[in-house]
Amino acid sequence: MRDRPNTPTRPSPFARGHADAVVGLLVVALELVVYVIAAIRTALPDGDGSGGHPAGRAGPAPPAVPAADWTATVTFGVIAAAAVVLAVLMFRFHNPWTGATQVLTALTLCLVTVSAGGDASRETHPSPANTPGWSSPPCLSGGDSDECARSGG
In principle, which of 20, 25, 99, 134 could form an S-S bond with 90, CB 3.0–4.6 Å? Predict the structure, then answer.
């Protein structure tokens, strides 16, 4: 057998599989760092105390019922969409382990996104307070409401 000095050698499938798994874990770690930074940035208020108004000028009065803050939901949604795109690309370029970890990461991020959206909605639309009160029993005599009120039922 003659050696060809100019032909590159292909790595074994075993080595390619390990490299694929390592790349998958590194990409998930990188996404986790991006996710944590995004979570911290959306959780912290504006640092200047101006409430988002330029030069500290007062803006319009805040509404009685504040609008939902969808910043976290949109941010996590964009990160989840990027994970989906990356998963498709990894499967397209024959990296099944990286693609599979991206699918799992994208599903997890989608759940977090839906949860963040539900939290934002619940904050602005709280459930009404359950106030127990007296409710009269139904009138079974067949009469009108005055007759039932006179009979105590």
Answer: 99
How many domains does the chain contain in total?
1
Is 93 within a domain? yes
Asked if residues 104 and 98 have their Cβ atoms less than 8 Å apart, the reply is no
- Whether 143 maps to a domain, the answer reads no
Residue of higher predicted confidence among 50 and 136: 136
Q: How high is the mean pLDDT of the chain? A: 74
Q: Is the pLDDT of residue 107 over 90?
A: yes
Q: 10 Å Cβ neighbour count for 65?
A: 9
- C-alpha Rg value of the chain to the nearest Å: 30
Q: Which domain holds residue 39?
A: 13-47+69-122
Distance CA 42, CA 36 (A): 10
pLDDT for the residue 103: 93
Q: Residue 112 and residue 142: Cα distance in Å, rounded?
A: 55
Question: Would 64 be classed as within a structural domain?
Answer: no
pLDDT the model gives residue 116: 75
Could you tell me how many residues make up the chain?
153
Q: For the chain, percent helix, then strand, then coil, each to nearest 5?
A: 60, 0, 40
pTM of structure: 0.57
